[in-house]
Write a structure and sequence with these properties.
The chain is of the alpha/beta class. The chain has 13 helices and eight strands. Strand 3 and strand 4 form a beta hairpin.
Length: 300
């Protein structure tokens, strides 16, 4: 049963990192699904030109031929030609809807480079008409590269969630996203990092593993630690306990579960609809609360 949020402020957020394979699509999907579950309706926008989200949710025809029929590029229709985005939205599950990706998003990217207000089209023609009217929350799955589509996502939302995985290159992905996306964007408009989200963790954190390294990096780094959700945060006191071999407060971060991967890959649906008993739904629920609140509020 959906949990009503009577004091909600409509908010859009984008999920992005300048590195592929770091859980961006999985985070965007399950965050949006929890927002829909908690608030009855939410919109997911697939702005990634590889279309993994759209394809894995079973909307191959929309990706290849356009969701409006007649082989129309619906992304171009909305972002370039100012068509009504409602004509191209499809349902995913429950109250979660999707504005699909399209196979020729690269063509839209090129067109936007020369368009008047080319970085504001998503905000003007999709987010503003729908946010607060049709949906209280909009979640955008960004491309993993710089460009006009990423600019549009950041400008349209003003809020960014950065997903990370304990793999080689995670620090480069985080630094590049901050230095090559966030800082340049902030020269022109307000952009907040709402959360830095470590996921797919599989190992104990009291040993020298990439899981431990990633968690220590983000929970002790100035400007980043305050953005780590409570389900992944480790305090300085807890790090001392870990070093002393006295930490027994569970395993932080979104943990690896086969259900998370299988839900999208095999069943073409969000985790909640595939396995509502999965223990990691609580983490996505907290992430949804962060979006509702507009910030991480640290547990006392």
């Amino acid at each position: 049963m959906a949990q009503s949020n009577t004091s909600k402020t409509p908010r859009a957020v984008c999920v992005g990192i300048l590195k592929g394979g770091f859980g961006k699509t999985t985070t965007a999907l399950n965050l949006a699904r929890e927002l829909a579950h908690r608030n009855e309706k939410a919109l997911l926008v697939d702005l990634d030109d590889n279309g993994h989200l759209t394809l894995n949710l079973g909307h191959r025809d929309a990706y290849q031929n356009g969701s409006g029929g007649d082989n129309e590029n619906h992304a171009e229709a909305v972002l370039v030609n100012e068509a009504d985005p409602r004509d191209y939205i499809v349902n995913v599950a429950g109250g979660l809807d999707l504005f699909p990706s399209h196979a020729d998003l690269e063509g839209v990217e090129s067109t936007l480079k020369d368009a008047v207000q080319g970085s504001a089209r998503l905000k003007q023609h999709l987010v503003e008409p729908l946010l607060g009217e049709d949906y209280d929350y909009v979640v955008i799955d960004c491309p993993a590269n710089r460009g006009k589509l990423n600019d549009n996502a950041m400008f349209a939302t003003g809020n960014l969630i950065i997903p990370l995985r304990p793999e080689l290159g995670y620090e480069t992905g985080l630094d590049n996203t901050v230095n090559r996306l966030v800082k340049p964007a902030r020269r022109y408009f307000d952009l907040d990092i709402l959360a830095v989200v470590p996921s797919d963790l599989q190992r104990r954190i009291d040993q020298a593993t990439l899981d431990q390294e990633l968690l220590k990096e983000i929970t002790t780094r100035d400007g980043v630690a305050s953005k780590v959700p409570n389900f992944a945060y480790i305090s300085p006191e807890d790090w001392e306990a870990i070093e002393a071999g006295e930490y027994d407060d569970g395993l932080p971060g979104i943990r690896h579960r086969d259900a998370i991967n299988n839900s999208l890959r095999d069943a073409n649906e969000p985790l909640r609809d595939f396995d509502r008993e999965c223990d990691q739904l609580a983490a996505y629920d907290e992430l949804a609360q962060i979006v509702e609140q507009g910030e991480v509020i640290r547990d006392e």
